[in-house]
């Protein structure tokens, strides 16, 4: 191994692993700690696109997570991030004429004469 800071090739000791599983080293010459070959973490873009396609097709987040073998919160984060990058919806023109239908609705309880 070669230290990225001082360039020394001697006294390079293993000092454990990262959470991703990559080997960590320490240079005894300059006391620098480094990881020479970092492992990639996370999911690929293809899996993200597949999850988004499932969501657009109407599949719910939990089912997508079960189908792809990932947590549904992860799918939710991907959907939110994708939605934030979408362009704004076009603003509709002002309404000039509106038609109303005859409909009666009751808000709350219907008043009846019998008590």
Description:
With 115 residues, this protein is α+β, with helices and mostly antiparallel strands. The chain is 29% helix and 11% strand. It has helices spanning 45-56, 61-68, 72-84; strands spanning 12-17, 23-27, 33-34. Strands 1-2-3 form a 3-stranded antiparallel β-sheet, with no helix packed on it. A hairpin with a 5-residue loop joins β1 and β2. α1 (45-56) packs antiparallel against α2, α1 (45-56) packs across α3 and α2 (61-68) crosses α3.
Gist of the model:
The chain is α+β, with helices and mostly antiparallel strands and 115 residues long. The chain has three helices and three strands.
Beta-strand proportion: 5-15%
Please state the overall shape, judged from the principal axes of the Cα atoms.
Answer: elongated
Structural category: alpha+beta
Number of helices, where a helix is a run of at least 4 consecutive DSSP H or I residues: 3
Question: Taking Cα atoms only, what radius of gyration do you get, to the nearest Å?
Answer: 30 Å
How many DSSP-defined strands? 3
Mean pLDDT equals 86
Stretches with pLDDT under 50, minimum 5 residues:
none
- Placed side by side, the strands forming the largest sheet appear as 1-2-3
Oligomer: single chain
Helical proportion? Answer: 25-40%
Largest sheet geometry: 3 strands, antiparallel
Q: Could you spell the SSE succession in H and E letters?
A: EEEHHH
